[in-house]
Design goal:
25% helix; OB fold (Dihydrolipoamide Acetyltransferase, E2P); 3 helices; alpha+beta
Length: 150
């Protein structure tokens, strides 16, 4: 497999993958590129009187409570003035609604512990933090995971 890059000048940047037969390696390459592109964006968050710029890839999950939207990362908690429904339209495809009050970064999930009678527990890679998927969102959440992984 050859890798080649070229400067195209003006216009929108484009990544082209050429192949004679689709293979699992090609599919993984395409998904990896999509994941990198989606994690490149960032958003401004607050902590006290300080403002920070976080990349989407750093964010584990968002949750609402007490009229605030909290942004959870490995390094701590930040706040944003945006509501969850506003975030849904801004976030890349690696984020999915897990409950009425939570949006999760699927790319950062380590495990999901299914609970048929209550919320299912989500753990994250390289983090002690956990959150939950409500029973009513479980099916759409797992469908989104499959969609992102394809």
């Amino acid at each position: 497999m050859k890798i080649r890059t070229e400067i195209c000048g003006e216009g929108e940047e484009e990544i082209v993958i050429r192949y004679s037969k689709e293979t699992p390696e090609i599919a993984r390459l395409e998904n990896g590129i999509k994941r990198l592109i989606s994690e490149e964006g960032n958003m401004q968050v607050n902590l006290g009187d300080r403002k920070f710029l976080l990349s989407f890839g750093e964010i584990l999950f968002f949750e609402t409570g007490d009229g605030k939207t909290t942004v959870h990362t490995n390094g701590g908690m930040y706040y944003t003035g945006l509501k969850l429904f506003e975030l849904e339209s801004l976030l890349p495809g690696t984020f999915a609604r897990a409950s009425k009050s939570t949006i999760v970064n699927i790319a950062r999930i380590r495990s999901i512990k299914r609970n048929i009678t209550g919320p299912s527990e989500v753990t994250f890679r390289r983090s002690e933090k956990i959150t939950y998927i409500s029973r009513s969102y479980y099916k759409s959440f797992t469908d989104k995971i499959e969609e992102v992984r394809k």
